[in-house]
């Protein structure tokens, strides 16, 4: 027997750390590390939920509540999430590399062109067209 | 047969109006004259048939309208009252249409086009509407005709719309009569709610058998009285009528003298059983009629414009009719035969229609000759156009009530009714009697004054006799016949006039007073004053000319508050309602400036919004659950 | 307190602490390494919870591949080895980020504990083994699984396409290998 409380608290802590990492970091790679923590928090919740019998919490106290869901959705989902996370980090790091190549830095503060009153963005539609050609 | 005659009387003028507008321009006069001639023939046939075969209570016109829980029968009815009035209306309409063909000769100038085709069609439409009012078997149908009459009046008063005065007069007439018409609409609503029907016959029957609740009856009668006062130009809704003289003179003769303004009296006569259930309302009507009678006669005394003089006399004479029907409840307390009670008013309605139309058409000839409506420009008609002067004089004698002319008999019938009521001991009877007798004197004075100015006076007309077209003179002769010979009718009165009682006492007094008053006015020029009105003090002249300044009272009591209210509403519209609309622009701009601050371009900031949003939504969800 | 729970608590503390260090460490490489520890301890937690295959996949894919990728990226972007103050945003941003993290974590923990706190479950051995997972994935989850393979392929192609240098692109267009 094991308490579900532990995995839940650990997942919440990891999610909070992930959010902190995403918001506080300036380095793009470190932001991605925060995102990984968030994804793992979700995974932990999925795996913890997979220990519940078919029917979830409602079936727990009942006599029939010991039957395992043959599809094991929690763990299958966790595997899928890991796969998707791998794909995501691959594309994301490729973008970071591209950014480094273009700007020589991976700091997010250096790429604010899409914002209002960007310090580095000076293009007008006409110059943008000219630059593109 | 009666059904067909009544239907034709209504539909022929309507058809003439439509065809007159749709067919060739040169046929307009033919359609107009044919339409009213047809209506006259139909009306005479109707009168004959009704007298022999008795009334017809329901003539299918538009079927019936099922409105929720009540059914409104859009049917006509025909009885002696409607037939007699229809003959009078059709006769005057025919005379006016013939007269107008000459009156509106030519195309006019570019600045003042005659617009004869629209004019003739509108007059035909008016005739049809008046016929509808007369024959309506249901208050809703009557209301339709009533409103169309108002529209035609508005259009014809403003016929010369290039003149600002005509436009103002048209709007004034429209607004004031409409104010009264609200009463008619509300009365219909009240009667539907309280009595469950709008059929006139049904209402009269229910009223006679005391089936209508007292509250409903009083409310409905008071509201109807408002409509009557507005349409018949009685105090305090009378000021539109003198201004309406801006319209062409034939229109004044038809609408604002002989027919439309007496529609109110007709309504009271038609619904007299209902009115009799609310004697208090009738007393109010009698008071208003007495005030109008004397006040308008006084105002007529000092008018400097022939048409305005005649207009005030119209108010005064219509007040006679209204007073005659309004004393009905005091004459026969209890046992009432409504037809007999209404007879004096109806009689004066008929004779007045004839002599007033004659007067207006003759005045139109005078204006045609002189080129002005001001009394100061007229004079010497007796020497230059003697036959016209005679016709004018017949009209004036009828108006003044000098025997044996038509006006004498009907006016004495009214006074007889008032005396009967006075003998019954009611104050209303005495009031009407006193006012009536006083008005006889005043009427005689202003009729004589008009004669002495227009027919005698200095010769100011052009020395070469101005030729009058036959089409303008012929209707005058036509109308002179009933004006002179109305009394003959009383020898073999139709059923509707059976209730006439001419009291010898009042008759002789009235005749003497009328003759004396006319004589006094005629004698005035020989005593040094060409115009009897100039014998009055200057201030009195001004006040009377101004009709006691009632227009100013209206301006202070109604017009200014309405303008003030309009200013307030405009300010509210501009400063309150529009403010919200105008605020959308700045609000959007400010909101845009604020939201731009969120667009930093920093990916972390955008992510922060996502998490903040997630937290907020979660917290909100928890708070709501 | 059973042995499983003791083991779980130890792993959880290790995972939480290493996660904290991974997002706060001033050294870039240390961050990546602490991430390895964190993910590894999570794999242990999965084992405790009876999810053997997931734990293995965690070690293989995350600890083995993803973290290596991250370290590669750090090297390619010439990340400094020494402690660097420029890794984080300004103090105000850190404060706000901390607040946001606390809020998210707190709310998550609160709702989860409110919903399923205090529940005890029986961990059955063998339910997360290769055989049941394989049967589940290749029967009921077959279509999502195949879709995922397409996604992975697309991500692979996309990563290559994005990260190629302009020079490489030009060479390809000229057709000279």
Structure, explained:
The complex is a heterotrimer of chains A (133), B (625) and C (177). With 133 residues, chain A is an all-alpha fold. Helices cover 62% and strands 2% of the residues of chain A. Chain A starts with a strand and ends with a helix. The mean pLDDT of chain A is 83. Chain B is mainly alpha-helical. Among the domains of chain B are: 287-545, no CATH class; 554-624. Chain B has helices at 2-22, 28-53, 80-103, 116-135, 139-157, 164-195, 200-208, 214-231, 240-243, 249-258, 263-270, 272-276, 279-301, 306-326, 328-331, 338-370, 381-384, 386-400, 406-423, 427-456, 470-489, 504-523, 538-545, 550-596, 603-624, and strands at 56-67, 70-78. In chain B, helix 5 packs antiparallel against helix 6 (164-195). Chain C has a domain at 1-84: Four Helix Bundle (Hemerythrin (Met), subunit A) (Up-down Bundle). Chain C is globular and about 65 Å long. The relative contact order of chain C is 0.07. At the A-C interface, strand 1, helix 1, helix 2 and helix 3 of A face helix 1, helix 2, helix 3, helix 4 and strand 1 of C. Chain B: Residues 66-107 form the NADH-Ubiquinone oxidoreductase (complex I) chain 5 N-terminal domain. Chain B: Its main location: membrane. Chain B: The chain crosses the membrane at residues 32-49, 80-104, 116-134, 140-157, 182-200, 212-230, 251-269, 281-302, 309-328, 357-376, 388-407, 427-447, 468-492, 504-524, 603-624. Chain B: Residues 136-432 form the NADH:quinone oxidoreductase/Mrp antiporter transmembrane domain. Chain B: GO terms for molecular function: NADH dehydrogenase (ubiquinone) activity; NADH dehydrogenase activity.
Task: Quote the beta fraction of chain B.
Answer: under 5%
Radius of gyration of CA atoms of chain B, rounded to a whole number = 29 Å
CATH topology of the domain at 1-84 in chain C: Four Helix Bundle (Hemerythrin (Met), subunit A)
Our estimate of the beta-strand percent of chain C is under 5%
Do you know the CATH architecture of the domain at 1-84 in chain C?
Answer: Up-down Bundle
First and last CA, distance of chain B: 82 Å
The CATH top-level class label of the domain at 1-84 in chain C: Mainly Alpha
Main sheet makeup of chain C? none
Mean pLDDT of chain B equals 83
Major sheet characteristics of chain B:
2 strands, antiparallel
Main location (chain C): membrane
InterPro entries (chain C): NADH_UbQ/plastoQ_OxRdtase_su6, Nuo/plastoQ_OxRdtase_6_NuoJ
Membrane topology (chain C): Multi-pass membrane protein
Subcellular location (chain C): Cell membrane
């Amino acid at each position: 027997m094991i308490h579900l409380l532990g995995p839940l608290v650990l997942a919440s802590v990891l999610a909070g750390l992930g959010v902190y990492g995403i918001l506080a970091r300036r380095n793009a790679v470190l932001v991605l590390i925060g995102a990984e923590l968030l994804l793992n928090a979700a995974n932990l919740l999925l795996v913890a939920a997979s220990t519940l019998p078919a029917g979830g919490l409602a079936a727990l106290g009942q006599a029939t509540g010991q039957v395992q869901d043959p599809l094991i959705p929690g763990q299958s989902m966790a595997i899928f999430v890991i796969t998707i996370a791998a794909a995501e980090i691959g594309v994301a790091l490729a973008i970071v590399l591209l950014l480094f190549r273009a700007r020589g830095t991976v700091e997010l503060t250096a790429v604010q062109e899409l914002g209002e009153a960007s310090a580095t963005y000076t293009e007008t539609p006409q110059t943008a067209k000219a630059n593109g050609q | 047969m009666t059904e067909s005659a009544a239907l034709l009387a209504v539909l022929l003028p309507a058809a003439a109006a439509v065809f007159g507008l749709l067919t060739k321009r040169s046929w307009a006069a033919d359609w107009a004259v044919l339409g009213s001639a047809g209506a006259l023939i139909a009306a005479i046939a109707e009168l004959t048939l009704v007298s022999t075969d008795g009334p017809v209570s329901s003539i299918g016109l538009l079927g019936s309208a099922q409105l929720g829980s009540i059914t409104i029968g859009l049917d006509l009815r025909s009885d002696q009252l409607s037939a007699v009035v229809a003959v009078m209306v059709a006769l005057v309409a025919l005379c006016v249409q013939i007269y107008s063909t000459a009156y509106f000769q030519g195309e006019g100038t570019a600045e003042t086009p005659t617009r004869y085709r629209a004019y003739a069609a509108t007059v035909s439409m008016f005739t049809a509407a008046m016929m509808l009012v007369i024959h309506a078997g249901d208050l809703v149908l009557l209301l339709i005709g009533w409103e169309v009459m108002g529209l035609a009046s508005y259009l014809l008063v403003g016929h010369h719309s290039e003149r600002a005065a005509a436009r103002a007069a048209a709007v004034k007439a429209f607004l004031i009569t409409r104010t009264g018409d609200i009463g008619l609409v509300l009365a219909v609503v009240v009667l539907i709610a309280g009595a469950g029907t709008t059929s006139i016959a049904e209402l009269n029957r229910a009223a006679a058998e005391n089936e209508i609740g007292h509250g409903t009856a009083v409310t409905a009668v008071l509201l109807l009285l408002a409509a009557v006062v507005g349409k018949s130009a009685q105090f305090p809704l009378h000021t539109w009528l003198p201004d309406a003289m801006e319209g062409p003179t034939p229109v004044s003769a038809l609408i604002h003298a002989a027919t439309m303004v007496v529609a109110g009296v007709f309504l009271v006569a038609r619904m007299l059983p209902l009115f009799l259930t609310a004697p208090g309302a009738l007393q109010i009507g009698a008071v208003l009629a007495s005030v109008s009678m004397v006040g308008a006669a006084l105002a007529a005394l000092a008018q400097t414009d022939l048409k305005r003089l005649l207009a005030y006399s119209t108010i005064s004479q219509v007040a006679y009719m209204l007073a005659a029907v309004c004393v009905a409840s005091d004459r026969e307390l209890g046992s009432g035969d409504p037809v007999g009670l209404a007879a004096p008013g109806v009689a004066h309605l008929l004779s007045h229609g004839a002599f007033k139309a004659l007067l207006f058409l003759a005045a139109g000839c005078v204006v045609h000759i002189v080129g002005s409506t001001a009394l100061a420009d007229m004079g010497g008609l007796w020497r230059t156009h003697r036959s016209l002067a005679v016709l004018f004089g017949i009209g004036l004698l009828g108006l003044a009530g000098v025997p044996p002319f038509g006006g004498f008999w009907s006016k004495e019938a009214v006074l007889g009714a008032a005396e009967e009521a006075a003998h019954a001991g009611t104050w209303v009877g005495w009031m009407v009697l006193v006012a009536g007798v006083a008005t006889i004197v005043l009427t005689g004075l202003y009729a004589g004054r008009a004669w002495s100015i227009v027919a005698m006076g200095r010769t100011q007309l052009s020395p070469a006799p101005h030729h009058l077209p036959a089409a303008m003179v012929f209707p005058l002769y036509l109308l002179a016949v009933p004006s002179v010979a109305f009394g003959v009718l009383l020898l073999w009165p139709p059923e509707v006039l059976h209730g006439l009682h001419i009291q010898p006492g009042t008759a002789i007094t009235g005749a003497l007073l009328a003759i004396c008053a006319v004589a006094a006015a005629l004698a005035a020029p020989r005593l040094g004053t060409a115009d009897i009105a100039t014998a009055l003090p200057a201030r009195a002249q001004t006040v009377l000319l101004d009709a006691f300044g009632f227009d100013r009272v209206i301006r202070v009591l109604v017009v200014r508050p309405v303008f003030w209210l309009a200013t307030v509403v405009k300010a509210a519209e501009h400063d309150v309602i529009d403010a919200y609309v105008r605020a959308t622009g700045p609000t959007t701009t400010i909101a845009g400036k604020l939201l731009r601050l969120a667009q930093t371009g920093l990916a972390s900031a955008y992510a922060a919004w996502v998490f903040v949003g997630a937290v907020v939504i979660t917290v909100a969800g928890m708070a709501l659950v | 307190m059973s042995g499983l729970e003791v083991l779980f608590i130890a792993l959880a503390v290790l995972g939480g602490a290493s996660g904290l260090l991974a997002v706060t460490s001033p050294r870039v490489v240390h961050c990546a390494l602490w991430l390895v520890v964190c993910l590894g301890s999570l794999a242990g937690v999965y084992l405790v919870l009876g999810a053997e295959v997931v734990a293995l996949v965690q070690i293989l894919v995350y600890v083995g591949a993803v973290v290596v990728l991250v370290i590669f990226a750090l090297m390619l972007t010439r990340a400094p080895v020494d402690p660097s103050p420029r890794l984080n945003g300004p103090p105000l941003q850190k404060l706000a980020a901390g607040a946001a993290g606390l809020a998210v974590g707190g709310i998550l923990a609160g709702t989860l504990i409110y919903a399923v706190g205090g529940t005890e479950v029986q961990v059955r051995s063998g339910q997360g083994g290769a055989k049941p997972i394989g049967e589940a994935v290749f029967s009921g989850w077959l279509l999502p699984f195949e879709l995922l393979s397409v996604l992975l392929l697309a991500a692979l192609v996309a990563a290559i396409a994005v990260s190629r240098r302009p020079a490489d692109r030009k060479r390809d267009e000229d057709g000279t290998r």
